[in-house]
Amino acid sequence: MTTHTYTDITLTELERLRRQPDTAVVDVRDEWEFEEFNIGGLNIPLADIRARKGELLPYSTLLVICTNGVRSRVAAKDLLRQPDLQAKSIYHLHGGIIEAVD
Length: 102
Prior knowledge:
Layout: E1 7-9, H1 11-17, E2 23-27, H2 31-36, E3 42-43, E4 61-65, H3 70-80, E5 89-93, H4 98-101
Parallel strand pairs: 1-5, 2-3, 2-4, 4-5
């Protein structure tokens, strides 16, 4: 049995990876947080991630982000549990986008 996992990445790696075809940045913060500050991508709050997983099906690579890396880690693990998303390459922004604010 193959164990599906995600890969931790840095903000620099995220910027490089997001330019690849079929890649989506998935910001799992609440809508108000996304509106206040974001680095682009799809805003799918953590609470809605399962209900809206269909929006992620067209992409082969998912870059999951949040403010400090806590919610995005939960989201990455949850996405890996979804049978229709297990073939995706899933990356988690370690430390979150808080680094981008500096």
